[in-house]
Design goal:
By secondary structure, the chain is an alpha+beta fold. It has six helices and seven strands.
Amino acid sequence: MARRATNMRMSASARRSRYIARKAVLLLMAIAAAAILATLDKGGVFGKRRGSDWSVYHNKTFHVVRVVDGDTILLAAPDGDSSTTTVRLWGVDTPETVKPDHPVEHFGPQASRFTTKLVADEMVRIELERNTRDKYGRLLAFVYLPDGRMLNRVLIEQGYGYADPRFEHSHKDEFHRLHVQAKAAGVGLWKDVSTSDLPDYLKR
């Protein structure tokens, strides 16, 4: 009898262990599924936007509804739950004006006004490369003005932004050359920029 009772207790314990293990596996599967769905929805699979970034945006023209700052604009194009798409100009970095908990940087307002003058309420063409989003979910793009010029290039050329060397793209060498030329000519922000005004990646 004692042996039978012991076996029954061991059997109950084993069943309980298997039950807990099954629940843990199901919980992990549910978490993984939720993470996958969240990632897909961020890309617009279950939101308003349909298709890949490449098929939706590349080489297509959109209306600019707002300029956030010198290197960020909003397009009249649905993106997930948003009615607009946030575009971060690829390869150029303008001084900050709206970054949370961050002071307005040297020449930031001028860069914002310059971009606003060029693209606010205008139609622009979007060009993408292989990496289409940054870590904040913004669309990385080269933006072409109605007159055919590339906004990214113009900002660097006229001294309203820096060529950002941290990421690879097809215009990286060209942007670096324009950056060096603008600095040598002392145009735009290069007229009176100090070392302390520069972004950290240019101080190294």
